[in-house]
Amino acid sequence: DADTVDGDTDAELDAESATDTPPPRADANVVQFPSRIVEIDDAPEADGAPEDDRPDVDGIFARLRSEAPDPATEPDLALADVPEPAQADAAEPTPFSRRDEAIVPLIVSAARKLKRVLADEQNDVLDLLRRKEPVTDLATLLAETDEHIAVYTSAIADELLSAAAAGAGELGVKDTKTSRRKLEQADALGAARSVVRNGLIGPLRDRIERALADSAGDNDEVARTARAVYREWKTQHIDDQLDDVFLSAFAGGVAVTAEHGAPMRWLIDPTSPGCPDCEDNSLAGPVAAGDPYPTGHTSAPAHAGCRCLVLPAHQ
Asked: What pLDDT digit, counting tens, does each position of 115-126 carry?
């Protein structure tokens, strides 16, 4: 019937054509390559089945190997042509990295200046000890304590103020003559001067004074001790103490710039292990600027070698 034939649907024709290709047997592995399906029968051969009926597996893979591209024809990329891996993005600056970048050059400059001050002071002390009269009083050799400290802090005043200005910069204050004057008026360098007093000048004076007490008026013996003390200060002690001096100056700039009562958080430098006191302060969470942390400190650093910072809680 022509009407019936003409009325066959496309779906019926597709189904009819699909039956032309028998499905693979359930017990056969199917390996599919472009444009062909190959059945590899690894089921056990039935008794008496002729070997000639088995697929030529070796022949199949031989043909595939012959159709594979020749490695010799592949382009030989020179090392120069191989794209280099993308460079990792530079680490995002942190308050700690910005602080270190700001104060390290200042420490280097300050160390040179203080070593010149020490050399001049040593020469003056030794000249006094060459006198015939026995020297038994520290005041004969060195200026009064506050004046002595002022000589050292004046020599590095520019560097100290630059460190405090960098600290204020963490709170958005631009480094200008006006802002520096305000930092001085707010005693931003008070903590740094204390480190100079207790870490540099105090121990030096104690060593010289002890030598005077032990010498029984022997100026030569005092001179030998003085040479050793000044050599130690110039080669080691200055460098050891200046880190604390400038960390305190930077923190002082932060402390006097923060708005009183603003929430501040104690942060531990991730490159330096925090001590138990600093960890207690860090765990305290935000504390109003000017109020003490659990250890009683209102600002970092808390002790010699401390590299912590106190910054606004939102930073």
From this structure: 999 999 999 999
Calpha distance 259→314 (Å, rounded): 14
pTM: 0.70
CB atoms within 10 A of CB 4: 7
* Cβ density class 228-259: b for 16+ within 10 Å, e for less: ebbeebbeebbeebbbbbbbbbbbbbbbbbbe
Task: Say how many C-beta atoms besides its own lie within 10 A of residue 203's C-beta.
Answer: 15
Q: Which of 265, 12, 226, 244 is nearest to 107 (CA)?
A: 244
Classify the C-alpha dihedral 119-120-121-124 as positive or negative.
positive
Compute CA 121 distance to the chain's CA centroid, rounded to the nearest angstrom.
38
pLDDT tens per residue across span 12-42: 444 444 444 455 444 444 444 444 444 444 4
In sequence order, what E strands does the chain have?
29-33, 36-40, 263-267, 287-288, 309-312
d(CA 143, CA 210): 16
**d(Cα 30, Cα 41) in Å, to the nearest integer?**
9
Quote the DSSP letter at residue 306: -
Q: Which of 145, 159, 147 is nearest to 249 (CA)?
A: 159
Q: What is the spatial distance between Cα 224 and Cα 229, in angstroms, rounded to a whole number?
A: 9
